[in-house]
Structure formats: structure tokens, C-alpha cells
Write a structure and sequence with these properties.
By secondary structure, this protein is of the alpha+beta class. The protein has a single domain, classed as 3-Layer(aba) Sandwich (Aminopeptidase). It has six helices and eight strands. The chain has an eight-stranded mixed sheet with strand order 1-8-2-7-6-5-4-3. Helix 5 links the parallel strand 6 and strand 7. Helix 2 packs across helix 3.
Length: 205
Amino acid sequence: MMRVPETNAGAVALAEGIGMGPARWWSELHRDLTEPVTSVPAPAGLAVASLGPYYDAARWDEPLRAAHNSAFADHWGSVPASAEAWVHQRTGSRAFRPACSAVARVADGEIAGYVLSYEHDAATARTGRRDLYVATVGTIAAHRGRGVAAALLAHVLQAARDHGCDTSSLTVDAHNPTGALRVYDRAGYRLNRREITFALPQTHP
């Protein structure tokens, strides 16, 4: 498989020339954080809270990993994250920003949804602007359609504004089965560019 910008005609032609076809489309979205964030209340029976300012790995890593593996079990290309991969790729990263990440829980503490966000210092140094990258938005299947993601995103975006971020960005599967594009549009994100994953015919979903 190969993933290329939709506007890169040469790369698209190369993929098609070796017999690949489009398997998935990805939307890169941006939001200007100078624009105000509309508060979204948590759904009934749920509470939304930040994972910071200081992240408690002993408390959160395993519940979050279990929630992630459940939330993404039906997503294209997703595989369960091991404990080691979770820390290495998610919460152990120097770019992880727990104060701008959040969790939604029911009264007994069970996780209904979560958002993990990152800020890359190298990008900030290069552009002079602080961008909060929302890497993962997950909602457990039993809680979908209740506005969990909307409440989490509103919480995270307000935190990003409060911490001085200029923009927020994310990349979403344009064929996401959970209606994610509509959620992000309502949160104020707008399309910046699209990418296409090309694959050989036998690897198409």
C-alpha cells in the first residue's frame, strides 16, 4: 500500500500505473483557535475531565488502552495496541499533552470515550505557531450517537486555547463508519487537504 496527497498527480499516476487502486481517503482538517469554542455539555450520566496537567500512567494507561482497542475494533486497518506499543506511541511520547487530552466516564469509572492530543516542538519552531494535533478520538460502541466525541472535543479545544495554542489539526478516515467528519465539522474544523491510500486489488477492504 501507499498513501499520497490527492493533488499529487504524479504519485497518483504511479500508483495506478503499477495496478493499485484507491482503497481509502483521508481528510486533513484544521481549526483556527482564535475562533471561540462552543461549550458542549457531557451526555447524561457521563463526566468529562482532562488527563492532566500531570499524567498518571499507573491510573490511566491500561483503562485507556482497553477503551482504545474496543473503540477501534471495527475501524479499517486497526490492530489492538499492546501495552508496550501504547506507551511508546501514545502516552509515553514527549509530544503528548495530557492537559489538552480528555476522558469521558460513567459514574462507576468506566471509560465511554477519550481524546489524545500532541504538540510537536519541531513544528512549532519551524512555523512559529503552536498546533495541537488531535491524534485519537475514540468512543466505545455502546456510547456512540450520544454526543460523547462532541463534548470531548469542545473540552480539548478550550484547553488548547487556554494553553496558548494557535491552531488544531487532525487526520480522519473519510470512510469512517462512526460519522466522524460531521462531528469535526460541527467542532469548527475545516478541510485542508486529502490523501489517498492505494492498494493492490487483493488488499482492498
